[in-house]
Amino acid sequence: MLPNAASVALIRKTQFLLIQRARAPMEGLWTLPGGRLEPGEAIEACAQREVLEELGLHAFALRPVRVLEVKQFRLQVFATEGFEGEIVPNPEEIRAWRWVRPDQLGTLKTTIDLSAVVESAFRMFDRS
Questions:
Q1: Rounded to an integer, what distance in angstroms lies between the CA atom of residue 28 and that of residue 15?
Q2: 44-86 pLDDT, tens digit each
Q3: Contact in structure between 52 and 34 (CB atoms under 8 Å)
Q4: The model's pTM
Q5: ∠ CA 101-105-108 to the nearest 5 degrees?
Q6: Which of 13, 25, 40, 47 has the greatest number of C-beta atoms within 10 Å?
Q7: Per CATH, which fold does 5-124 belong to?
């Protein structure tokens, strides 16, 4: 079964960008930016569109990390160090955002398997 949603770990040196969802289904949880696939859209294009819609950033050079089963979603997670623009969060989708180190995840209420996903993403860029 093909993925029907995508998310992106935006990595900056030893940190990554985390967002807090403003609405269901993950309201209040900290997670990676992303969302649902639109009809006829490629999964990588979905990931790029969601980052742009949610944060105002252009993401590129995406690398697939893993696929997660989350409720009704089959989520393709990507990671990249390639992004540009100024963060302008969409208040309808994002309650808050912050740059965090992977070791700070334990203090936040996050979506399922986020620490394992982030660990895999950082390994792809030779960072632990």
A1: 21
A2: 999 999 999 999 999 999 999 999 988 788 999 999 999 999 9
A3: no
A4: 0.94
A5: 130
A6: 47
A7: Nucleoside Triphosphate Pyrophosphohydrolase (3.90.79)
